[in-house]
Amino acid sequence: MGVGDKPQEPENRRERSFLKPDEFVAALRALSETELTRLQEKAKYRALGSGMEGDDLFQEAIRRTLEEDERRCPSDVRVPIYLDNAMRSIADGERRKYVRERPAGAGQSDEDEPESSLTNALPDPAPSPSDTALARIELREVLEALEQMFADDPEAQAVIMGAGEGWSGDEIKDLSNMDDKHYVAARKRVRRGLAKKFGIRGRP
Amino acid sequence: MNKDSDARIKLDRLSEALAKDLDALSDGELMEEIAATDEGRQKTVSHMRSLIEEAIATSGRRRLAKARQAYDAIKGKARAKVTDLPLDQKKALVAHFAKDPQALPEKLTMAARNEANSEADLDSLLQDLLELGVIDDEGNPR
To answer: Fewer Cβ within 10 Å of end Cβ, chain B: N or C?
Structure first.
């Protein structure tokens, strides 16, 4: 470093920049057909057990970004990725809220933090439009319903159970004796089945 | 960890795994799986675009309503004390500034000298004086 040169600021200490609301709106309007299609599907999966529909979850992610100072899209993150992470965070916030608001007498623990998302977004603490009374369907019933949906499809069941446990694809294949082809087909059946059956409020 | 909490984490993991699956699909594979026909594709895209516009519009309305609420709160609070004074007192105050304009902008001085002022005009003038810091919120000259 020469005399008078300023020391370089470490990468992680530089201030992060965010899209301004009008830039975010412009980016939303510029989303491509495939990005929109992907987001619509992801919204259905993200909404699982949240008590919200995929469409509502998608709109909620947009509204909160435009209305809340603490939820902004970083300039260096692609908008579809940001939206997916925002939906994940909001949906987990809804499920977490449900666990907190369970009827009296139900035990709970806060030790189980969700696994971090790409942007490490915290679960959303803000109130949402979901109806708490309707939301009081036990989350495990959602999981049970998912497994029931594929009661006669053990490979699809293995995908659901394995993904829920956090197993890798290889682990799921090994533990259920599936080859690549069967595994890919089973995951596709799960995706299509869920998108079809769980469109309403993310619950069966 | 209770059962619901355990289920919450499992649902989060499952949604993540399925979302990642979609990312692994090429654009062609995605369209084939989800919207195989042109009609289906157009329907999906137009539906999503309308959701976006709806969310933007709702958000705009909410922000405007919030701003209006904040504006009314500030205005209403300031207006309550000064404009609640008896009419005679309000007239006397305005007359005082009409005679002794000092730092008042010309426009306000002219308004203060206008004898045809209605009570609403007086209130508006007092509000202006308050905002300029010429009087306090109870009408006392500063």
So the answer is: C
